[in-house]
Amino acid sequence: MGEKKRIAAVILFYSIACAIAWPIFLNMSWFQSWLSPLGIPAVNPYLFIMWGPGVAALLSYTFFRKKIVRHVSLFGKQILRSLLFFLGPWFFFFFLHLAFPFSEQYKPVNFLLIIPISFVFTIGEELGWRGFLQDTLRPVPALWRWLTIGLLWEFWHIRFLWISETISEGMLRTLPLLAGSIALSFLLGYSTERSKSLLVPVTLHIWANNLMQSTHWVTFVTVGLSFILWFYLLKNWHKKLARQLEN
């Protein structure tokens, strides 16, 4: 893929992603009131926001389908490891919350909905940022690629326009979030590069969000245990599973 077409693909993707998300970010209360009569909690403005990059990726893939070489797929070449990477943290969280319950939201029966809903929400974003964009920018050195994606990712949120009453205050409050987005972009970018599995960054993204939304110690212990599992899986990602089981 030539440089001009690569730039055109990135511009097309980013324009569509922003065109879908920005009107919702800036008119959140209106969209919430518009969707609330449906009575389906999972169908809320954030579903459409997070699928902005996903829709943009699908349309951009279609337009440039003969030019972009895809390296990243849902499971990569390791279906079992990808599923273990995704389901392992939920296993830890389920049993920890069963022993130390702290929220009615996480009743055992609710996990049948929480897990697939978390996946559906997050796969939209990751299909765009780590799926389409990481493949499209592949000729760029990895560190610059992840930095670029982190900057584009944070600006796509346009937090400085809605997080505070004034833009100047919003920009100050956005700076730590910018640093967080870039750091997370490096983590997700590396894990995607290592695994070629989209389910890996989806998992990391979900639990990064969970950490921000729940400060209970059960969530932190879950992520701590999960990091051990994630590190082991990524370290041994390309080893044959049969050989590992024999040892």
Automatic annotation (TrEMBL):
GO terms for biological process: CAAX-box protein maturation; proteolysis. Keywords: Hydrolase, Membrane, Metalloprotease, Protease, Transmembrane, Transmembrane helix. The chain crosses the membrane at residues 7-26, 46-64, 84-103, 143-162, 174-191, 211-234. It comes from the Bacteria. Residues 111-209 form the CAAX prenyl protease 2/Lysostaphin resistance protein A-like domain. GO terms for molecular function: endopeptidase activity; metallopeptidase activity. This is CPBP family intramembrane metalloprotease. It comes from Salibacter halophilus.
